[in-house]
Structures are given as C-alpha cells and as structure tokens.
UniProtKB/TrEMBL annotation:
NCBIfam families: transpos_IS701 (NF033540). Pfam families: DDE_5. InterPro entries: IS701-like, IS701-like_DDE_dom, RNaseH-like_sf. Residues 19-225 form the Transposase IS701-like DDE domain. This is IS701 family transposase. It comes from Streptosporangium amethystogenes subsp. fukuiense.
C-alpha cells in the first residue's frame, strides 16, 4: 500500500466519527496533508496556500470554532501508534519543549526557562509523552504548562479560553496526569524515562512506586540517598567512593543505542541504592546507573532505575538510552511538521494544532517502521551481550 493510500485511509477513519459535517472533515484531511508537505513556514496561511485554499479561513475555523473533540483525536493518535509500534517492552518518555513567542496574548506564554536556548525566554512550555519501542517512536500525549501567573489571572484566562476547571499544575504533575491517562488506556510500557528535571521530583517517583511502574530517569547530583551508616547523602558521594577505590574495572563500556552519528557508547557502572525516605514498590529495587563520557571522563550523568528484583542492568541501560528518542520527536515535530509554528493564541486552537501535528508525526513513524531493516542493523540487534551486575556500595 502506498503512503498516499495509507494516509487517506487513516485520515478518513479518524475524521468520519470526529466531525459531524463534511466541511471540517475535508479541512482536517487537507491540514494533515499540508503539515506533511514541504512548506517553509507551517502557519495557517502558508498551509492553506500550499493545499490550494484561497484563504486560511477553513483551517482557522477548524482549529477554533468548529465543534469537535480534540481529546478524541489524541486517543486516536495513541491507538494508531500502539497498533503499529506497541510492544510489551516499550517505554514512555517524558520531556518538555518550548515555543518562543512574541507578545503576551498567547495562552501560557511567560518569561520562563527555555530548554532551546538554556535561558529565560518569552515562551510557552509543552510537556509531552513519547511512546518508543524497537519498531519506532512518536508522541502519544501532550499538555500546555500554565504558569502560576496565568493560573491565577481570571481575566487573562478568559481571553485565552482557558477552561475554568484548569488549575495550576507543575510540569511533573502534568506528566503524572498523562501517565494516569496512559495507564487507563492500557498503553503497554515497561519503563518511564525522563531527564533530571523530572527524575528529581519525589511526587512523580512516588506515583510510580505506588503503582509498581518501572522507571529509568536521570537525577541530579544532590538527590538524597540513604547513607550506609544512617542519615542521607547525595548521589555524588557514591561516585566519589567508587573512584576512591582506584579500580578501572568498575566501568563497562557499552552502547545504549544508536544515534544520528552511530552507536552511543559510554562507560557505565551500577550500584544498588536506597532513596532517602522513599521506598520502592514491593518486589522492586532502586539501582543507580552512572554514565561517563568516553572522550571526556569528567562528564558524568546519574540515572535512578526502579525495576523488579533480578532485572539485568543491561536492560535498564538500554532504557536509559531510549530517552533521546523524544528529542528526535521534538526536532522532527518542529522542523518538519510545524509543531510550534502556529499562530493560534487560545487554549482550544493550541491543543487542536499540536494534536494534529502529533497525528502527522505518528504517520511518519509508522511509515518508517514499514521500511526494510538494514541487515547489519538487524544483526547488531540480535547480538548477545554480557550482563553488568548491580553491586552495593
């Protein structure tokens, strides 16, 4: 089946129950196709011009005033991704991206930290969940972070169409909300992966412990661990003691997956730990993974793994290496599909634009999964690998 035939079948299947009238149904199909096209700037006017509309009014109406359920579209995106990419050993990856904006009218925009530039910018922050497996990866859920200044400003919320029930939620709390939706939907995943901005949050970790969910999340150097002689100590002290032993055998060099430049090889070690005042789920244990750059040994990153007893450390290292896949989704979503190139300002149009982009990205991921696998890549996936056993320190 050609990609054009597959896209038509996908959009028709989703649009028929989503829209009561043929006009928004056709506008939706046109918008998805335009997002997938080679359009330099993917705002409504340029997308409309590419598809052959005289004006952007049909797209603007679809995103703003037309009556349809954007969460139903989100559910369809998830179902499509899982039908083609879902695996029992899949992972969910949490991260946020930013859309730099001008002015103060766009919903959720504020002076806040922007990961794109590493500094404070006037931007919107978008927490996202990616589903990833050996078959591929794509977004399955999204939120718009509403800063406290917005959450408590009724007049501003009203102008942007923010629903009255929306209260202030931190970014980790938004990820918890999305995780709850994935659990309710039956999304099959073995681990949650995230960077230290989420791994440091005790509430997110507690949510996983209470529901016996595995995770492999980066954590900051000052994360408190239970010390051997009582009290607490920061994660960094564990590495200090390992290095003080002076034995190079503590490191094992291995790949945690392939990136754009080939295998992503690091030195790794693993230590069984206890997190201060936070026990793992029954039948689970905490392991601290320490990753060291091969070319710059002073560059070290820490990961906290929450996994069932007896889990091979190679498995959690592989999970740690999956985190970069959401960065690829962010890059492709922005550069190829206009994820943050919208000109909408209100709550509902924002969610509709972003979720439609998620559908376009999911389509690309599924089509990529149907391509023949390179023989060398397939052989590399099948290689037996030694186990790196966790030890206590």
């Amino acid at each position: 089946m050609s990609w054009d035939t597959e896209l038509t079948a996908l959009v028709t299947r989703i649009a028929d129950p989503l829209f009561a009238r043929p006009e928004p149904r056709q506008a939706f199909a046109d918008l998805v196709r335009a997002l997938l096209a080679d359009v330099p700037r993917k705002n409504s006017w340029q997308l409309a011009d590419h598809i052959g509309h005289a004006t952007a009014h049909r797209f603007e109406h679809l995103l703003d005033r037309a009556k349809w359920d954007v969460d139903a579209l989100r559910d369809e995106v998830r179902s499509y991704v899982l039908a083609h990419l879902g695996r029992t050993d899949g992972v969910l990856i949490a991260d946020d991206t930013a859309a730099i904006k001008k002015g103060e009218a766009s919903v959720g925009v504020a002076d806040q930290y922007c990961g794109l530039t590493g500094q404070v910018e006037n931007c919107q922050v978008i927490p996202l969940l990616t589903y990833a497996s050996d078959a591929g990866h794509a977004f399955v859920n999204r939120r718009l972070y509403l800063p406290e200044a917005w959450a408590h400003d009724g007049e501003r919320r009203g102008r942007a169409g923010v629903p009255e029930y929306m209260a202030f939620r931190t970014k980790p709390q938004l990820v918890i909300d999305m995780l709850g939706e994935e659990i309710a939907a039956g999304t099959p995943f073995r681990y949650l992966c995230a960077d230290a901005g989420y791994g440091r949050d005790p509430h997110l970790r507690a949510f996983c412990h209470e529901r016996a969910l595995g995770y492999v999340m980066a954590v900051p150097v000052d994360l408190p661990l239970a010390a051997v002689r009582g009290g607490a100590e920061p994660v960094g002290h564990v590495l200090d003691r390992l290095l003080a032993q002076g034995t190079p055998q503590i490191w094992e060099r291995r790949s945690c997956g392939n990136g754009s430049k080939g295998a992503r090889v690091y030195d790794w070690t693993a230590v069984a730990v206890a997190v201060a005042e936070q026990a793992p789920a029954p039948g689970y244990a905490h392991t601290l993974l320490i990753r060291r750059s091969v070319n710059a040994p002073s560059e070290v990153e820490f990961f906290l793994a929450h996994a069932p007893f007896g889990t091979a450390v190679t498995e959690v290292i592989d999970a740690a290496g999956m985190r970069w896949k959401i960065e690829e989704n962010n890059e492709h979503g922005k550069d190829l599909l206009g994820l943050t190139q919208y000109q909408v300002r209100k709550w509902t149009p924002w969610h509709r634009h972003v979720t439609t982009c998620m559908l376009a990205l999911a389509f690309l991921a599924v089509m990529r999964a149907t391509l023949p696998v390179d023989a060398d890549e397939a052989a590399d996936k099948g290689k037996d690998r030694p186990l790196l056993e966790a030890s206590s320190c």
